[in-house]
Amino acid sequence: EETGMNVGFRNVSNIRLAQTQDRMDEYRQYAGVASTIGVQADFLTPDEVKEFWPLCNTEGLVGAIRHPGDGYIQPADLTQALARGARDRGAEIYRNTAVTGISRTEAGEWKVTTDKGEITCEHVISATGNFARQTGRMVGLNVPVIPVEHQYIVTEPHEAIKARHAEGLPEMGV
């Protein structure tokens, strides 16, 4: 919103199922933390899950947590919006530049060593994705990131999902 750029947000909500009381307790703790930052979380009974998600097998289900404001965005558009917002506030972005070292100066600034020279700055933002483990090590952090290949199933549109769209309801992603 601040940059005026559309990031393609689509509200689809989400439901996380709990098949054990321990998992439901975990969701309650999560909801408490989420509420401190304004994230709405609703708890559902198995019957309520079925109302929201008619295709769900609720047999043996203890309950669920639902985030009605959840959705997805277009990652490339979000990246561009974040970059514009950062530049508008004075940030410099160095693309296609390999970072080979990060250290603190005696004055408390950061010295970032790259394949194109050194950069001194107040703040460093690591947007290194799959390389976060390596850049984390440069500042003494263990970042537990493991690149994972994802698989997707693409099907024909399902009649129940098409009906939800016709009613103006979110598709309730599976």
Features:
alpha+beta; single chain; about 170 residues; about 20% strand; about 30% helix; D-Amino Acid Oxidase, Chain A, domain 2
Report on this model:
29% of the residues lie in helices and 18% in strands. The chain is an alpha+beta fold and 174 residues long. It has a domain at 1-90: 2-Layer Sandwich (D-Amino Acid Oxidase, Chain A, domain 2). Strand 7 (110-114) and strand 8 form a beta hairpin.
Low-confidence parts: none
CATH homologous superfamily caption of the domain at 1-90: D-Amino Acid Oxidase, subunit A, domain 2
Q: Write down the Rg.
A: 22 Å
Q: Strand order, main sheet: write it out.
A: 2-4-3
Number of strands: 8
Helix- and strand-based class? Answer: alpha+beta
